[in-house]
Amino acid sequence: MSDKHLSSQFDADLNLISSKVLEMGGLVESQIITAMQALNEFDSEACERVIAAEDRLNSMEVEIDEECSNIIALRQPAARDLRLVLAISKTITNLERAGDEAEKIAKRTKRLMEDGASRSVNIAEIKVSGEMAVSILRRALDAFARLDTVAAAQIVRDDKAIDEEFRAFVRKLVSYMMEDPRTISVGLDYLFIAKAIERIGDHAKNIAEFIIYIVKGTDVRHKSRDALEREALS
Questions:
Q1: How far apart, in whole angstroms, are the C-alpha atoms of residue 223 and residue 234?
Q2: Which of 74, 91, 131, 138 has the largest CB neighbor count within 10 A?
Q3: Alpha-carbon span 222 to 138, nearest angstrom
C-alpha cells in the first residue's frame, strides 16, 4: 500500500471521528434545549426525552474513544494529528458530562413537578444562563469544526457571563429563602439546576481550550483569560 494511500486513509479516519464528535455535540445541544423547555414549561414528556437520550450519549462516548485508541495504536499519529486525537478524546468526555448536566436539569424539574412546586421563585437568570449555555456550546462545536482559535478565545471570555448570571441568581435565591423559609426546598432545587447550567458553560469552555491546544500546541488550561487570548491570537 502506497504512503499516499495510507495518508489518505488516515485523513479519512480523522475526518470520520471529527464528524462523530459533532454528531454527539448536536445530541448534547438538543438535550440541553429540551431540558430548558421542560423547566420553562414544566413538561414531563420533555424531561423523559432528555433522560432517555443519556444512554445514546454514553454509547457514543465509548465508541468514539475506542476509535481514538485504535487510531493511536494503528496510525501512530504525531504532532498536530496526535493533538487532534487526544483533544477529541477529552472533548467527548466534556460533551458526555454536559449531557449529564442536562439530565440533572430534567430530573430536578421532574422533582419540582412531583412536589407541586409553584412559580414562587423568579428564575429569570436561569432562563438567561440556559440560553447562554446552549449558544456557547453551539459556538464551541462550530469552532471545533473549523479549528478556529479566535472563536475559541471568545468562548472562554463569554463563559464568564454565565458565571455572573449564576452568582446573581444565588444572591437572589438567598434573599428569597431568608424572607420566606417555605421557599427553601424549591430554592435548593433551582440552585441545583442553576449550577448544572453553569457547569455546561464550563464544559463548552474546556472544548474551546482544546481547540487552542490542537492548533497552537500549547495547553492553555488553568491559564488566565488574557494569557489564553494571547496564545490563541498569536
A1: 15
A2: 91
A3: 23
Residue 135: HSE in the Cβ half-sphere, 13 Å Cα cutoff? 14
Cell numbers representing residue 86 in the block: 487526544
What span, in angstroms and rounded, lies between the C-alpha atoms of 94 and 149? 18
Mean pLDDT by 10 residues, the chain (234 residues): 59 93 97 96 96 95 96 90 96 98 96 78 89 96 96 92 91 87 87 96 96 92 84 84
Q: Is residue 102 within 8 Å of residue 200, measured between CB atoms? A: yes
Alpha-carbon dihedral sign for residues 68, 205, 174, 176: negative
Q: Give whole-number Cα distances, 136 to 90, 131, 139, 140, 161, in Å.
A: 18, 9, 5, 6, 10
State if pTM tops 0.90. Answer: yes
Contact 59, 93 (CB under 8 A): no
Res 5: pLDDT: 42
- Helix orientation angle between 3-41 and 44-75, rounded to the nearest 10 degrees: 160
Q: What is the rounded CA–CA span in Å between residue 18 and residue 89?
A: 10
Residue 13: how many CA atoms within 13 Å on its side-chain side?
22
Domain boundaries, the chain: 3-233
pLDDT score of 115: 82
Q: Would you say 14 and 47 are in contact if contact means Cβ atoms under 8 Å apart?
A: no
Eight-class DSSP state of 59: H
Architecture of domain 3-233: Up-down Bundle (1.20)
* CB 27 within 8 Å of CB 56: yes
Give the separation between CA 39 and CA 113, rounded to whole angstroms.
9
